[in-house]
């Protein structure tokens, strides 16, 4: 029995090959697009319908969805479906070769007897005999098939061949089809096919791989361009965040620019925002980066959004694009503040406040308004009423919505009226009021009180555990300060002070039995991999109340520790990398920061900050107080006592920390070349030096201001 390989002459098998690959692409893509079309639009409706004046957002979302159907991915998707349907129709028309079956030819069932076979053969042979159908050639062919089928069922040898090989003539030559068209391996086309292989495998595929790799190398974490990080690192200045953010290279890639038809609108925006009449003017009043087209255009669009000014349709489309990048770029700015050698706390806070202004479409003056989130509902008379409230004036949103609904109605309804009062209560039900619980530990699990001036040691790593709980106006604890410091001798009720244990009242360090074996690596892991602890939880959040922001936005918060300049003798300092968290009802996490290397006896006043990226006036600052010691005291161990016979009290004695004492004694010594920095300052200094080197290289090679 021979074997023969045949290529597809008709193209039917090659159609199946192409259809298989199209199916691999079309099935997941179709499911994704159907889900986005129905479920995605439903989510957008849910997040916009409850935002009150959400006309601006709905308009932008509708415009974006209309433009999305013209994207290249959608065109490819439609073309793939058209090709799939055409090939499927072509395959359906192909005749399928049936397996030889003599019973089917004689129109009998498989269990027919010999008598039935002979009877049926006589009937069909008389009907299709060539002498009776001389004008019908198909009848003659069918008569031959009938005779052959009868022989296959009555002759023992023939029937055995049919049952064993599927053919009454015995074994046949077996052929294997290859799903490639015959012209592809034709001798006449071999040079053209070889050229296609060379172009595809040696030129096109490597080129695509190199392009994708080079594109990926342009980005750092969170899809931020290397150039953007370099610009932020070099040009970061306090209170000029809009200017620095506008120079991001992402806007250049998206071709954000001004057109001649936009000049009149640009002048109006500059006038209302007190930016000057002409962004391209020269002299002392000239704009920063006025020779960078996308930076000028983006800055104008930002200020137009913050002033809630109407712009041209082209500018409006660009405005939607630039606003979408604000949360991502703000996080990059905040991280640049931490990596910067100056540790700018005030600049990092300005970045966060700028994000709040852009989310709420408010000018910078809104940061000085304690009721900025409800400014449209509260009039001047109502604000005066709150300021004169007895027994304690109401000066911010937390104090306002800490009162019950009945108390608010009694205070404000005569001044506001029914409609404004209802709007105020609705907004209060949507705003998040977060309470915080803090616990501070060192690398050995020793806990500290946060506002009693406990002694901490210069250069050591500390771990701050925090628990955030989200409340609305109805569930916000009445007269709550917004935070609780675990271990404080400051109970909220007298009953708690009576039941408090002496260990909780003592200012001595307390070591919990469960944390005795906690390794110092956990603290360093929190410093080097802050996202791992955060990512281990299922992140859920709630839609933010941002009616003028043209994209869906979730509530998110920055948590970090910093020291302001006016609270200490050293400079403004960002002590920890700001972590961005999201929560639906509550969130628990931890992060590490280092104690500054100050002289012994110095009092250190850091603060824990909780800053929203969406709301103005809902941030929280928790003051802390510590006394800094130069080094941890050394406790000598008794050498004569065997390790196996140590008592329980001796095993719980404080562990000697020689590395910390040696580090403090040799603070001015230089590290040997090639040593790994094992202190917090060494790790952070190495990161900052590397970031500065990368920024200098990028700016030197690529920038021309």
Automatic annotation (TrEMBL):
It holds the Pfam family Sec63. Keywords: Chaperone, Endoplasmic reticulum, Membrane, Protein transport, Transmembrane, Transmembrane helix, Transport. GO terms for cellular component: Sec62/Sec63 complex. Residues 492-543, 640-705 are annotated as: Disordered. GO terms for biological process: post-translational protein targeting to endoplasmic reticulum membrane; SRP-dependent cotranslational protein targeting to membrane. SUPFAM superfamilies: Chaperone J-domain (SSF46565), E set domains (SSF81296), Sec63 N-terminal domain-like (SSF158702). The keyword Protein transport applies. One of its GO terms (molecular function) is protein transmembrane transporter activity. Residues 496-523, 665-675, 694-705 have a biased composition (Acidic residues). It comes from the Eukaryota. Residues 528-541 have a biased composition (Basic and acidic residues). Residues 101-166 form the J domain. Coiled coil: none annotated. It is a multi-pass membrane protein. It is found in: Endoplasmic reticulum membrane. The chain crosses the membrane at residues 15-35, 68-91, 192-213. This is J domain-containing protein.
